[in-house]
Amino acid sequence: MFAGIGGFREGLRRAGGFECVGHCEQDEHAERSYRVLFDTRGEWFCEDIRKADAGSMPGFELLCGGFPCQSFSIAGSRHGFADPRGTLFFELARVAETRKPQYLL
């Protein structure tokens, strides 16, 4: 979730033994870069996690999500949960609650 340009994916690729089954990314520039860097053919994709049906996602054991930090960071607005980006954490929690992966990162 919140794939950016693939930091989690690349780290797990380097660690070995992981297969990515899908990703979610709203920023069109990051999404374009992600697809150039990684072969995503046949993988699940959702642009907006708020609209994702967790039940329709493929099976997975590890859920990764680097939700946007600008809502909480001194580099951003620091409006916390009052900033719509700050509430995306709860979407990650919603998916985890529904799918109950063995691991959450």
Verbal overview:
The chain is of the alpha/beta class and 105 residues long. It has 3 helices and 4 strands; from the N terminus they run αβαββαβ. The chain has a two-stranded parallel sheet with strand order 1-2. It has a two-stranded parallel ribbon with strand order 3-4. The radius of gyration is 14 Å and the shape is globular. The termini are close together. The model has no long low-confidence stretch (mean pLDDT 91).
Q: What would the keywords be for this entry?
A:
single chain; 105 residues; alpha/beta; Rossmann fold; two-stranded parallel ribbon; 3 helices; 30% helix; 10% strand
Q: What is the fold named in CATH at topology level?
A: Rossmann fold
Strands across the major sheet, in which order? 1-2
Describe the largest sheet: 2 strands, parallel
Give the CATH architecture.
Answer: 3-Layer(aba) Sandwich
CATH class: Alpha Beta
- SSE string, helices as H and strands as E: HEHEEHE
Q: What is the domain tally?
A: 1
Distance between the first and last residues' Cα: 10 Å
Quaternary structure type? single chain
Any low-confidence stretches, pLDDT <50, length ≥5?
A: none
Got a strand count?
Answer: 4
